[in-house]
Design goal:
Family: Belongs to the short-chain dehydrogenases/reductases (SDR) family.
Bound molecules: nicotinamide-adenine-dinucleotide
Order of helices and strands: EHEHEHEHEHEHHHE
Strand order of the largest sheet: 3-2-1-4-5-6-7
Strand content: 5-15%
Distance between the termini: 43 Å
Radius of gyration: 18 Å
CATH superfamily: NAD(P)-binding Rossmann-like Domain
CATH architecture: 3-Layer(aba) Sandwich
Number of domains: 1
InterPro entries: NAD(P)-bd_dom_sf (IPR036291), Sc_DH/Rdtase_CS (IPR020904), SDR_fam (IPR002347)
Largest sheet: 7 strands, parallel
Number of strands: 7
Shape: globular
CATH class: Alpha Beta
Helix content: 40-55%
GO molecular function, one term: quinone binding
Keywords: NADP
């Protein structure tokens, strides 16, 4: 029997949910029956509302809340408002991330700090705020972060980005060990080349002024000879968010069409 503090439906937060992989995860988790709090930065409000309307049109439960994941108060507020709106939190997907390709010699302190404030501090803040509520709720939970294939093998022009995604793996491993005792699993996903604005914009920046075909380069590097679709990341996150992954924790799961092998 459910009580006020135990809702009949599971509840998820997805950050960076206005577009790309985050949007696909929001649609997938809502289709799985979870109530979703979808979040992004203020400039993405229209896109975020469109995602919520898409979910609601399929009879899913979605609410929108703006939050900059690099801000501790925004993230704490996001989790508190989710509890108010849906009665708790079962799944945190710390998906928001940024990428600015640059060579190591040219990376500026400003670029480095901005990248780490979103990709690493943002993930830490989401993990912490979710875990605090999940521990208080005493019903376990699923915490999931966005790493990258670049978090397993660094590459040229993505030195700072790769370092930030290696850090997500590290945080995920520590969090899994510290919070497993509370029934919380903590995992991350490591996409390869997935068809989103981030991939297209990074490719354009890396190859500007040359004839190099960035997407073709990635296509030929995969065993499956194609770029991935955001829905193919979302289906793995769906599994990580479900009971099907009950004995997986501390892992960073590669979803890259066979580009990098464990
Ligand atoms: N697309 C890929 O090929 C790929 C590969 C590996 C890893 N990833 C990772 O997957 C995640 C999603 O990537 P994507 O390709 O969908 O990117 P995207 O750029 O299309 O979407 C990222 C979303 O995050 C939001 N965001 C940025 N800064 C934020 C902040 N401070 N607070 C809240 N939201 C913020 C953006 O507004 C955007 O809506 C990222 O963490 C990315 O690093 C993507």
């Amino acid at each position: 029997m459910s009580t006020d503090s135990t809702p009949t439906h599971k509840v998820a937060i997805i950050t960076g949910a206005a577009q790309g992989i985050g949007r696909a995860i929001a649609l997938q988790l809502a289709a799985d029956g979870l109530a979703v709090m979808i979040s992004d930065i203020a400039s993405k409000l229209d896109q975020l509302n469109a995602v919520a309307m898409e979910i609601q049109s399929k009879k899913g439960r979605a609410q929108v809340m703006l939050a900059d994941v690099s801000s501790e108060s925004d993230v704490n507020n996001l989790v508190a408002k989710t509890k108010e709106a849906f009665g708790g939190l079962d799944v945190m997907v710390a998906n928001a991330g940024v990428a600015w390709p640059n060579s190591l010699l040219d990376v500026t302190v400003e670029e480095w700090d901005r990248l780490f404030s979103v990709n690493v501090r943002g993930v830490l803040l989401c993990y912490q705020a979710a875990a605090r509520l999940m521990i208080e709720q005493k019903r376990g939970g699923r915490i999931i972060g966005a790493s990258s294939i670049g978090g397993k093998k660094a590459g040229v022009m993505i030195g700072a980005y790769s370092a930030s995604k290696f850090a997500v793996r590290s945080l995920t491993q520590t969090a899994a060990q510290e919070w497993g005792v509370h029934g919380i699993t903590v995992n991350a996903y490591a996409p390869g080349a997935i068809e989103t604005a981030m991939l297209r914009d990074s490719g354009a920046e890396i190859t500007k002024g040359s004839n190099f075909d960035f997407l073709e380069h990635f296509r030929t590097k995969t065993a499956l000879r194609r770029i991935g679709d955001p829905s193919e990341v979302a289906s793995v996150v769906s599994m990580l968010a479900s009971e099907k992954s009950s004995y997986i924790t501390g892992q960073t799961i590669t979803i890259d069409g066979g580009m990098w092998f464990d």
